[in-house]
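Thread: Newbie trying to understand structure tokens

Hi all, I'm a second-year student working on a class project, and my supervisor (Dr. K.) asked me to get a predicted structure for one chain before our next meeting. I've only ever worked with sequences, so writing a 3D structure as a token string is new to me. If someone could post the tokens and maybe explain what I'm looking at, I'd be very grateful. Here's the chain:
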Amino acid sequence: MAIVAMAAVSPGLAARAAGFPEHPVNVILPYPTGTGPDTVMRLVGDKLKGYWGQPVTIENRPGSNYWSAVDAFKRGKPDGYTLFQTENWMIALQRHIFKKLPYDPDKDFVPVAPMFQATYFLTVAADSPWKTVADVVTAAKADDGNITFGSSGVGSAMHMGGAKLQNATGIKLTHVPVKETPQIFVQIANGELAMAFGTASTAGPMLRANKVKFIAIADKVRNPNFPEIPTFSEAGGPADFVHKSWLALYAPEGTPKAIVDKINADVSRALHEQDVEAKLASIGFTAWTSSPEELAETLAEETRAMGEIAKSQNISLD
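---
Reply by user tm_fold:
Sure, no problem. This is what the structure looks like when written as tokens:
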């Protein structure tokens, strides 16, 4: 995947970056108001307003495969005053499951700043006999293709979790898309679905009601908020199995590097303020900060991996 080149730093650009921003900054989101990404962006936006002395406006444009938000973003100038917040699945996956996109994923987005990660847990009914990933794999091999897993739709993070598990273990599962994410965990509790990949946020209400249970976390290390939940490897599953959603900020092609670096530094500062970290933890997220270059490398690797899974599992929305 090509990494978008940012405008070189000249004395004039450096001076402009030092004074940035001189008027409000607009962040476009493909998510509804009140969702996790929106909540985090508003928290960080309030911090940035304090640092910058300028408002940070949030423009919610949900729906249409995120394309309405992308269209609005592409109309922005490459000056740092228009930003776009989205998750890894959009830029890394959509190119593999749609034959045609209304944007160029390699050229239209300059990586600016990662924001947070949400790790997934393999979730089953509280009374399920499955206690480990090994139990699930054994059952799936014995009942080839009949065990179900729920997701919020084709190409969603939950769908890709199930696809990734099938790829890593060689099992076959039946994918069942469900329109409303909370209903997935209700159906698991009721025995209508066998399992799903859920986060602490999405599966949390049914977990706290003792209707579902986590049998493994899709990460290389345990989560300090759920120290009793083993990793996939510890639970007899594939070694180094990781499945996360992560969100980041992007700027239009041609945005000066000095401005990108300034936004990156200030977003990173905001994410590590104590009250922001506490709020993220309360909704099951973990702050993630790194350089624009490291974000670009992570995105490139995610793009490669998602392409392999989409191809092997025949995932398409065309």
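A couple of things are worth pointing out once you decode it. The chain has eleven helices and eleven strands. The longest strand covers residues 110-119. Feel free to ask follow-ups in this thread.
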